Amino acid sequence: MVCGMRAPVHVVERVPPETVAFDVLTRDELNSAAAATTLVVPLGSTEQHAHHLPTRTDAACVSAIAHRSARLAAGHVPVLVAPTLPFGCAHHHLPFGGTLSLTTSTYVNLLCDLVGGAVREGYRSVVLLNGHGGNDSAIRLAVDRIVYEERLDVHIAAASYWVLADDVLRAHGFVSPGHAGHFETSLMLALEPDLVHLNRRATDPTECTPLGRPDIPGASIRRSGLWEASDGRTDDAAKATAELGAVLVDEIVAVVAQFLVQFHRSTPAGGSDVARAFISSSPAEG
């Protein structure tokens, strides 16, 4: 220390209730919030989405849903959203090009390392919010390993947003979200319309294959060569609209926000004195 100068006083920062983005906060703000906060990690992918959608589609959708849901939930419980992981398990898209993929083993290791680091920093409540179907089985492997094998002191949930919002999808006639079709195109028209090129979409519905629909409900079925035989989409995007996308996003966000509140309150973080103070100082929803 320079003679005559006093060391700076450390001030513990409190995270404003309306702030949910991890990467805009300082270490002091994050450190003071960690123990009482649910950390949401959005999981995307970078992969082909037919001729008309950008490769960031999965990452864009889950990022928007995570941040909007967290802002809604933050009126009730402390929630932070980590930067979206833009890579996932997408080897089935490699034959088409426009895809960056991780193997399942690498992806599981990555998730375990990320969560392990968060736990070391004091987080005890974590949600892996998935936005890519190829990640679904891997995130379940990761949470099992984190809790049962690595024995980390954490309450952790792994969920794909469309599974949480299954009733929303079915109410609008979607059996599954599919890939680069009606559902995803509608979401992207609402979220990032400048990146949607409807004039480039395939117009022959006979080229589509029902890749997102299992023959036997409850079974995980994989067929060698099935994706290669398709044109990289599961259904036609002819009826996709920004209006439908906006409705879907709003309804999905409401469901995911409710899940975040319920999950947080079920964890030790939700019962801490810091959490109660945070909740009591947060604005109630109108």
TrEMBL record:
Annotated Pfam families: Creatininase
UniProt KW keywords: Hydrolase, Metal-binding, Zinc
GO biological process: riboflavin biosynthetic process
Stated name of the protein: Creatinine amidohydrolase
Gene3D superfamilies cross-referenced by the UniProt entry: Creatininase
Sequence similarity: Belongs to the creatininase superfamily.
Lineage: Bacteria, Bacillati, Actinomycetota, Actinomycetes, Micromonosporales
Alphabetized GO MF terms: hydrolase activity, acting on carbon-nitrogen (but not peptide) bonds, in linear amides; metal ion binding
Cofactor(s) the record lists: Zn(2+)
